[in-house]
Each structure stands twice: as C-alpha cells, then as structure tokens.
# Entry
Amino acid sequence: MMRAYKFLIRPTVGQTIALGEMLRDHCSLYNGALQERRDAYRHVSKTSIKYGMQSAQLKEIRVHDPERQGRWSFSSQQATLRRLGKAFAAFFRRVKAGETPGYPRFRGVNWFDTVDFPKDGDGCRWDSTPHDPVTRVRFQGVGHVKVNQHRPVVGKVKTVSLKREGKRWYVILTAEQTAPKPLPATGSVVGIDMGIANFLADSGGEFIENPRHGRKAAAKLEAAQQAVARCKRRSNRRKKAVQKVADLHRKVRRQRLDHAHKTAWGLVREHDFIAHEDLKIRNMVKAPAPRPDPDRPGSFLPNRAAAKAGLNHSISDAGWGVFLTILHAKAESAGRDVIAVDPRNTSRTCPECGHVAAENRPTQEKFHCVSCDHSAHADTVGALNVLRAGLVRREAAPA
# Structure
C-alpha cells in the first residue's frame, strides 16, 4: 500500500528565492502548453495536442531557454505537462457526462503552488545526506534543504512533491509499504450518523460535538477581509492583509484536519467494523435552482436560497468528506472494515418494529414511532439503522 508523508522544510533565504523561481517557471510552462493546445484547436482545423507531443518538445524548450527552463528537472517538467493532460481528460469526461465542463484555465503565479517529481532520485533526493543528523531533501537547481521530519518514513520513497502554502514550504512523499500489521480485535461494531448539531452520533448513544471551526473564526475572517478591501491594489499593505486572510483560512483548515484525524483514530482503535452513510456531499451543498415567476417574466419566486446557503456553509464547515476519507485510510492501515450504506430513511425507520414514516421524526432531535411508541434521539436511531444495514451488506458481500 502507499502512504503519504508531509513535512515542513526550512529553506535559507537564497533557497526560498530559488524555490519561488521553480514554481514560476513551471507555471510558465503549464500556461504555455495550455496556450498551444488552445491555438491548435482554434486555428489549425481543431487539432488536438496530446501530452506526448508536448513532452517531445521539452528538449528544444530547455535548449532555447536555459536560464528559466533548462535549470530544472526534466522529469518534474514532464509531470507538469502530465498535470495539464489530466485536466483536459477530466474536461472531456465532464463534457461527455453532460456536467459543467470547466475548461482548464491559465494559472497565476500565486495559484500554482506544487511541483511533482515522479521518482525519488530523478531531480530530487529524499534524505540526501544520510550521515547528517539533520534530514535534508535535495532539489535540482536549489540544493540541500533542511526538513523538519517529525516522524519516521516507513517504506521505500517513490515520489516527492514540493508545495507552497503561504510563506511555508512543504515536501510531500509517497512511500510504498508492505501490508500493515492490523490492530488487535476488539469485537465491537458501530454505526455512525453524520450531522450538523452534533458532528456524529454512534449506535451506542454517544455523541461527538461539532467543533464549528469556521464559525468560530468568522468574525476574524470578516475583519481581515474588510481590511483587504480598504487597501490599495498592488500595495505592500494589501499583500500583508491578503496574507493574514490566508493564514486564518489555513488555521481553520488545520483545525478541521486535526479534529478529523483524532475522531477517526478513536473509532478505528475501538471498533472492528464501522458503518456510515454514503453521503453525496457535492449534491447536498448545491444551490437551489431559481424559480421563474410565470406571471412576471424576468422575475423569480422565492426559493429559500439564503437558508440553503447557511446549511451549505454548515455542511462544509463540518468537513464530512475529509473525515470519511481519513476514516477509510486509517481503517485500511489498521485492518478494520468500513462500509458505506444508503442513507435514505435511516432516521425515519423505527429500530424496534421497522415502521417507516416521516411522522416518526417530529423534530430534528426527537424520534417517536407512531406505530410502537418507541422514543429515542433521532441521530442515535439513524446510527442504529446504519449499523444494521452495514452488517447486512457485510454478510452479503462475496468472500
């Protein structure tokens, strides 16, 4: 299996400048390749240019521009062109599926923050000075950069990526590992129900509070964004204000990730089997469609867009998608089973008699079966039904 590691690196002033130049030149290569594809399709009889054709031109580009393109790794430049090829492949896939196409866009220098190295040792080398007590990573054209390695890397390093986040720089590794040793069996199974009032409720009646990191930071974010609006464009003061907004968003994101990791690890450590709802989060946070007024052309009827926007913001702030991704990854490493089940009617089905009705849930928190008078918290009922559906799916799965 593959495992990713992310470490903070501490470049010198000169290395920081060189890393910035690396991102700038890869961004220029990306935009130039995109422009070539656009021009070929528009002006040369709708000709489509593929990755292989552009990769074959790299040698000439490096010879023609040795100061900007010739100094960097050939493999990393191929990875940048491959990234553009993936963007076009996704664009055509969405066109065929009838979705919003999202044509690949040109990237500004501040929006291009990652350079990939497909192979350790080709343009980069992890732990380039193994006899030095300080771990270092070497990048072609930059040199040996100090790494703040806070945990050991297990397995063979396959790929290396350089990423900029604000004023900080990170190195991201993917390492190939053997099958991990599973955690000792606990004999416990659990179902979880994701929510807004509570982050999740489990089938045992326990609740985990929703931390609402985004809402807690909303006042500071609002003040910081207002400060940006008061600054003159392209001024140093505006750059500092924009950096403050980015730092606040980064803090919220790290808090959300920390909460997701700790919550997922607690579930994986305590239970052998975990069932959760198969949530279509992207569909859940869509804005409601406008409702044209048939009596007044050009006017629209109320569609509760403001209320839906608040709900969408709360769902995004909870970070369900990130949490479920982390849960599956940790369960795989620990040898646990995780199954997603259909969430329909899980909070409307009585766990005692099986009666299904919308009237069984009179309020957001209360569940009261109109058939057998069973009462419980609605989220706990949902988690129980999710667990039962998950156990049925596990028994029905082929061996």
Notes: The radius of gyration is 26 Å. The chain has a mean pLDDT of 92. Residues 189-396 form one domain.
